[in-house]
C-alpha cells in the first residue's frame, strides 16, 4: 500500500523521482474533465495521466475515471493500470495493488 500525496504542479514536475503515488490535478476543462497526473505507485518514477471527472466518469472517447474530488483522501474508479508497472486501486488516499 502506498499513500497518495498531493503535490502542487511545480513540485510534481520538478523532480521525476518525487514520491511514488504522488499526484496533482489540473483545473477542469469546459466539460468538467480534469487531468490527474500521478507517479507510478511501483516506485519506478514514471508519470501517468488520467482523465477524471469530479463525481462523475467522463463520457469521452478515451479511458476515464470517476474521482471523489478529494486531494486529502482521493478515490478513483475503476482501477488504474499503469501498463508494465502496476495495477490496482486508489481508494481513500491509498494506492492498493490488485
What does this structure look like?
It is a single chain. The protein is built from one helix and nine strands. It is mainly beta. The protein has one domain (2-97). The chain has a five-stranded mixed β-sheet, with no helix packed on it. Strands 1-9-8-7 form a four-stranded antiparallel β-sheet, with no helix packed on it. A hairpin with a 7-residue loop joins strand 2 and strand 3. The longest helix is centred in the first third of the chain and has 6 residues, at 9-14. The radius of gyration is 12 Å and the shape is globular. The N and C termini lie close together (10 Å). The relative contact order is 0.21. The model has no long low-confidence stretch (mean pLDDT 95).
Question: How would you summarize this macromolecular structure in one to three sentences?
Answer:
With 98 residues, the protein is mainly beta. It has one helix at residues 9-14, and strands at 2-3, 23-25, 33-39, 47-54, 65-67, 76-77, 80-82, 86-91, 94-97.
Strand order of the largest sheet: 2-3-4-5-6
User: What is the average of the pLDDT values?
Assistant: 95
Number of strands: 9
Radius of gyration: 12 Å
How much helicity do the residues have?
under 10%
Please trace the helix and strand order, writing H or E for each element: EHEEEEEEEE
First and last CA, distance = 10 Å
The number of helices is: 1
User: How does the major sheet shape up?
Assistant: 5 strands, mixed
Strand content: 35-45%
Structural class: mainly beta
Low-pLDDT runs of 5+ residues are: none
Number of domains: 1
Choose one word for the global shape. globular
Amino acid at each position: 500500500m502506498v499513500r497518495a500525496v498531493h503535490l502542487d504542479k511545480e513540485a510534481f514536475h520538478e523532480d521525476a523521482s518525487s514520491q511514488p503515488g504522488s499526484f496533482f490535478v489540473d483545473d477542469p476543462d469546459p466539460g468538467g474533465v480534469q487531468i490527474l497526473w500521478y507517479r507510478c505507485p511501483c516506485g519506478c518514477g514514471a508519470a501517468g495521466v488520467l482523465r477524471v471527472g469530479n463525481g462523475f466518469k467522463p463520457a469521452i472517447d478515451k479511458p476515464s475515471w470517476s474521482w471523489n474530488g478529494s486531494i486529502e483522501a482521493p478515490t478513483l474508479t475503476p482501477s488504474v493500470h499503469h501498463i508494465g508497472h502496476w495495477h490496482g486501486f486508489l481508494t481513500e488516499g491509498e494506492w492498493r495493488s490488485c
